[in-house]
C-alpha cells in the first residue's frame, strides 16, 4: 500500500502544528501536563478537520477526510516529541 504524496504533505505540516499547540498548552496550563496535552490534541483535530471543512464549503482545495487524518497523526507525533522532551528534562 502506497501513501499518496499529498498525505505526506499534510503529515509533515501536522508535526510543527502539534509542537506549537503543545507549547501553547504548556504556557496556558503550567504544571498540568494532562490539560495542556488535551488542549493541544483537540486543537490539532479541530484545525486539521476545520481546514478540510473550509475546503468543502468554499470549494477552494480538495476536501478529503484522510488529509485531516494524516495531519492529526503528524500533529500527534509533534506533540509527543515535546511531551517526551518534557518528561526527560523533567
Q: In summary, what is this structure?
A:
This protein is mainly α and 90 residues long. The protein has helices spanning 5-28, 33-58, 65-89.
Class based on secondary structure composition and strand pairing: mainly alpha
Task: Report the mean per-residue pLDDT as an integer.
Answer: 95
Q: How many β-strand stretches? A: 0
Order of helices and strands: HHH
Low-confidence stretches: none
> In the residues, how many domains can be counted?
1
Q: What kind of sheet is the major sheet?
A: none
- Shape by Cα distribution: elongated
How far from one another are the termini? Answer: 40 Å
The number of helical elements comes to: 3
Indicate the percent of residues in helices. over 70%
Strand proportion: under 5%
Give the C-alpha Rg: 14 Å
Layout of helices and strands:
Elements: H1 5-28, H2 33-58, H3 65-89
Helix pairs in contact: 1-2, 1-3, 2-3
Amino acid at each position: 500500500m502506497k501513501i499518496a504524496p499529498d498525505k505526506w504533505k499534510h503529515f509533515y505540516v501536522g508535526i510543527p502544528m502539534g509542537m506549537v499547540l503543545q507549547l501553547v498548552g504548556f504556557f496556558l496550563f503550567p504544571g498540568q501536563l494532562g490539560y495542556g496535552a488535551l488542549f493541544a490534541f483537540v486543537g490539532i483535530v479541530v484545525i486539521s478537520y476545520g481546514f478540510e471543512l473550509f475546503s468543502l464549503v468554499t470549494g477552494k482545495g480538495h476536501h478529503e477526510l484522510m488529509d485531516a487524518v494524516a495531519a492529526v497523526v503528524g500533529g500527534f507525533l509533534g506533540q509527543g516529541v515535546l511531551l517526551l522532551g518534557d518528561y526527560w528534562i523533567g
